[in-house]
Structures are given as C-alpha cells and as structure tokens.
Amino acid sequence: MVCICLLVVLNMSMDSTIAGWSERQRLLFIERLLFWRGTINRRDLCDHFGISLPQATKDLVAYTTLNAAACQYDVRRKCYAASARMQAVLHEPNFSEDMEVVGAAMLDAPEAGEFVLGFSRPRRMADLKLHRKLSLAACHQESVEVAYWSVRSGESEKRWISPRAFGFDGLRWHVRALCHRDEVFKDFVIGRFEAVGKSKACPYVKCVDVDWLETETLVFRPCDALSPHQRTALEMDYSMEAGELKLAVRRAMRMYALRRLGFVAEPLEPPMLNELKQLKWLSDEAYGTIK
Fold first, then answer.
1. What is the pLDDT of residues 120-148, one digit of tens each?
2. Which of these, 192, 197, 199, lies nearest to 156 by C-alpha position?
3. Chosen domain end from 112, 137, 158
4. Do residue 108 and residue 6 come from a single domain?
5. To which H or E segment does residue 15 belong?
6. Residues 209 and 274: beta-carbon distance below 8 Å
7. How far is Cα 262 from Cα 147, in angstroms, rounded to an integer?
8. By the 8 A CB rule, do 288 and 217 touch?
9. Cβ of 138: how many Cβ atoms within 10 Å?
10. Greatest extent of the chain over all pairs of C-alpha atoms, in Å
11. Residue 33: CB partners within 8 Å, gap ≥ 6?
C-alpha cells in the first residue's frame, strides 16, 4: 500500500514535467524495458516509435532526470543498464501488459523465435462498415435492422436490435443489444451478422441491462482427487487464498468466463476438459454477488 501511494505521488509530481501524451508513451517504453529487460538504447526508441536519434537521446536524458536511480550508461555495451535500485515511477509494473511491449523490442534476433507469443485464434474477417454501424448505433442510442445468422434455427433472420455495449470472450467479439422481437437483452456474435441496415431512434432507451451491470463471484477449488502436492501447485498457479480462487465477472460475461476455463462447451461441440479436471467449480450462488 505504501509503494502504491508513493507511486501515485510521484506520478502527480512528474506529470507536470512531461510535455504531452507522445512523450509519456516513450518514457513509459524506456521504463518498461529497463524494468523487465534491464537495458535500453537509442535504437530501441527509434525502431519502436520512428523517431530520430537526437530525439531518442533527449528522451533517455529526460527519463534519467525523472528517475535518476533507475539506470546508468554502460560504455562497454553502449546502452543504459538498470541499476540494482531500479524502481518504476511512471506506472505500476504489470507482467501481462508490459510483456507485449518488451516482446516488440526483442525482434532483433529472429533465429531465436519470438520472445513473447500470444494465443493463436481463428482469424475473423472484419466488415468495417458493419462494425462501424453497430458502434455508431451503440454510441448514439439508436436501433438498427440486422440480418443475423442463428445457429439455433439454422437460418438467417431479420430483426431490430438496440446495441448498447461490446464484449470480447477471448475468441470473438459480441455486441450486447436489446432484441426488439423478444424484448430482452442478448449477446450477438458480430461475425454472424450478414447485414446491418437502416437505423432509427431507439424506443428502449430507458431499459436497463441488469446482467451487464451486475457483478458475480465465481469460486473455484482444486479437485478433491488431486494429491496434497498437486493441490499446492495449483493454489500457487492461480494465486488462491485459503485454497480458493474467486473470479469476479459481469453476469453477462459469466458463461464466457466458464467456457474459457472449460466448464461450458460450445454448442454442437464435445465438452472440454476443465484444466485437465484440476479445478472444480463451486456454485457462485452460495457466495452471493459483489455489490
């Protein structure tokens, strides 16, 4: 808590010394590479941002002025190297978020392969006009007439919907919208829209999507069949507290969270193993919801 408070104070005092958003992004890049990779040079900045060598030099000097104890110039390696006292002052380090930046800066050794690999997923062709119509309708509180291919009925159906928000389940984008035909909020897979047509003022502006707003807690424990050592490894892997993993999700995204962990199968597909049956899902109703 003390470290977080110190970071906030430092950020407030340093924001006044950073000229603008572009400079802040470059300084954050310097900090991330120093923190996670331990080194940075001018070429890293030039390649990543397309700036000149003099500008890169200026940015490195600016960062060392803001965070003097973070690094020192290594004459032999011709780069700035993080010191043993290196502390982040512009952001709170996050491994998952920062690795994307570090990986992009580690592309100078192609023979070793990518430094950071993400999850491979099916490529979905994007109809930009269709996506844009849905986004504009959601932002302007409008309704649109769509042609949507339903897996349940096996045919394309025309209907009016009122888009409200968007969600990503790790594989596909969904639009959260009120279906005028059934007068309920539903998730529509954007890739299944054949067409998005004319728009009009939404007659359901005052309708509240409770499932989108409410948050629930999903609770998981290691399966009873695991040995004590296996349970300990799993508890460490998921950062469990008191032998439980509690995952807060919006009620509308609940099914997708369970699906990613393998507790819910896709329609018409065989059930997936949930983490090789390492986890068991406890009824979230017994633990209530997060308000």
1. 777 777 788 999 999 999 999 999 999 99
2. 192
3. 112
4. yes
5. helix 2-15
6. no
7. 31
8. yes
9. 19
10. 71
11. 39, 40, 44, 101, 102, 105
Considering 36-50, 141-155, 213-227, 250-264, the range whose residues carry the highest mean pLDDT is 36-50
Residue 236 located in a structural domain: yes
Please say which residue of 208, 236, 268 terminates a domain: 208
User: Containing H/E element for 194?
Assistant: strand 193-201
160 touches 166 (CB < 8 A): no
Coil, helix or strand at residue 14: helix
Which residue from 205, 285, 274 is spatially nearest to 251, judged by alpha carbons?
A: 285
Tokens representing residue 98 in the block? 């920062």
**Number of domains within the chain:** 3
> What pTM value is reported for the model?
0.73
Q: Which of 245, 252, 246 is nearest to 231 (CA)?
A: 245
CA–CA separation, 40 and 23 (whole Å): 16
Domain of residue 13, residue span: 2-112
Euclidean distance between CA atoms 19 and 2, whole angstroms? 28
> Which has more pLDDT, 284 or 201?
201
Residue 118 lies in a domain: no
User: Are both 256 and 186 inside the same structural domain?
Assistant: no
Distances (CA, A) of 131 to 83, 93, 193, 262: 47, 33, 10, 29
Q: For tokens 């290594």, what's the residue?
A: 74
Q: Does 259 reside within a domain?
A: yes
Q: Are residues 156 and 57 located together in one domain of the fold?
A: no
Between CA 76 and CA 81 the distance in angstroms is: 11
48 strand-pairing partners: none
32 by Cβ neighbours in 10 Å (0-12 / 13-18 / 19+) ranks as buried
Residues of the chain by 3-state class (helix, strand, coil), percent to 5: 40, 25, 35
Structure tokens at 166: 């968007």
* 10 and 83 both lie in a single domain: yes
